[in-house]
Design brief:
The strands form three sheets. Strands 5-4-3-6-7-10 form a six-stranded mixed β-sheet, sandwiched between helices. Strands 1-2 form a two-stranded antiparallel sheet. A two-stranded antiparallel sheet has the order 8-9. The protein is α/β, with parallel strands linked by helices. Helix 3 (94-111) packs antiparallel against helix 4 (135-146) and helix 3 crosses helix 8 (268-276). The protein has eight helices and ten strands. It has two domains: 27-73, no CATH class; 75-276, Rossmann fold. Pfam families: DUF58.
Length: 279
């Protein structure tokens, strides 16, 4: 874990769209404020705060100057972690990767002094933690994430119950095996979210290496079905999976949502770097 956190130490989360008007964070704004990044001087005007006068400049110039600093803006970052039953599948396991990605994005967010909210979703949405912004919060969150047990179905529309969601960046980490995906993207977009979808699938889901007679069990509903997996059925399945991936990408592209597809055998640092990349 420590090695992974060191690897992502220099990665920065930025908005692809406009910045919020918020509290002090780690990124510079054109607005002048009171952070610790020195911007320059201007002549003192009656009514200015005398505490901001640069007294060292007066003996040299005979004039009063005000020291100005660049304001910095704090982003609101939301991480939505799919913890439905279907996520607990694959080698490497999808949910284990999703946990690591959530931890990594949380670490970056807290490290750059942004405000972090993290939610889990299956049939319902649960607030895991809100308004986190220091490293003490991070290590508590680390244990909470590790204790999550995937179960149940995914209903993305349950995210509409998050009413007090502020303008910011939202990461959705999911296998997209659920209902109402496009509807929730519309809802989050209406809340001025810069949305990044990280779509995880196991290699065995993309290109199954099974054959013969199989009993398939739905990990979300528990329903089972026996099939004879022939080469012809494999090819039909692969085509459906390709269409599934392409359809989800189109859903995202149409709404200006960033879509990152990642098999679960991908390197976590590469997934995060691609997810936060601003083009």
């Amino acid at each position: 874990m420590e090695k992974f956190l060191q690897e992502i130490e220099q990665i920065i989360i930025k908005r692809r769209k406009r910045l919020i008007n918020g509290q002090i964070g780690n990124r510079k704004s054109k607005r002048i404020g009171s952070s610790q990044d020195f911007y320059g001087h201007r002549i003192y005007n009656p009514g200015d705060d005398t505490k901001k006068i640069d007294w060292k400049a007066y003996p040299r110039t005979g004039k009063f100057y005000i020291r100005e600093f660049t304001a910095q803006k704090q982003m609101e970052i939301n991480i939505i972690l799919d913890c439905s039953g279907s996520m607990d599948f694959g080698n490497p396991n999808k949910f284990q990767l999703a946990e690591l990605l959530s931890i990594g994005l949380a670490y970056i967010s807290i490290n750059q002094r942004d405000k972090l909210n993290i939610y889990t979703i299956n049939k319902d949405v649960e607030i895991l933690r809100k308004n986190l912004n220091n490293k003490y919060d991070f290590y508590e969150l680390l244990n909470l994430i590790k204790d999550i047990k995937p179960k149940g179905e995914t209903n993305f529309y349950s995210l509409s119950s998050i009413e007090k969601i502020k303008e910011g960046v939202t990461f959705i980490i999911t296998d997209l095996f659920g209902k109402n995906f496009s509807d929730i993207l519309d809802y989050l977009s209406s809340k001025k979210q810069d949305i990044i979808v990280i779509h995880l699938m196991a290699p065995q889901e993309i290109k199954p290496d099974f054959s013969g007679e199989l009993k398939l069990i739905d990990k979300e509903t528990g329903e089972s079905r026996k099939i004879l997996l022939t080469q012809g059925i494999k090819e039909k399945y692969k085509k459906k999976i390709r269409n599934f991936i392409e359809d989800n990408k189109k859903i995202c592209d149409y709404r200006d949502v960033k879509y990152v597809f990642s098999p679960s055998d991908s390197q976590p640092i590469n997934i995060i770097a691609k997810a936060v990349e601003v083009i």
